[in-house]
């Protein structure tokens, strides 16, 4: 695992645990760590990441590109501010 990044197990646990089962603190933590992970994903070159992290980041960037959102929309989504 790359320093400061969530490992795959933690990411999967966050995704598969229903929001209704999470406390407000857990939801906030997930949003903040997710936003931090996206920043690290885009700032650190893939050549400086482990193979697994690089692969996961490439898939994540592709998923975000398919959403066709602006950077501001992505930031709002990562922080949970896009939900009404």
UniProtKB/TrEMBL annotation:
Residues 1-84 are annotated as: Disordered. Residues 47-57 have a biased composition (Polar residues). It comes from the Eukaryota. Residues 1-17, 58-84 have a biased composition (Basic and acidic residues). This is Uncharacterized protein. The lineage of its organism: Eukaryota, Fungi, Dikarya, Ascomycota, Pezizomycotina.
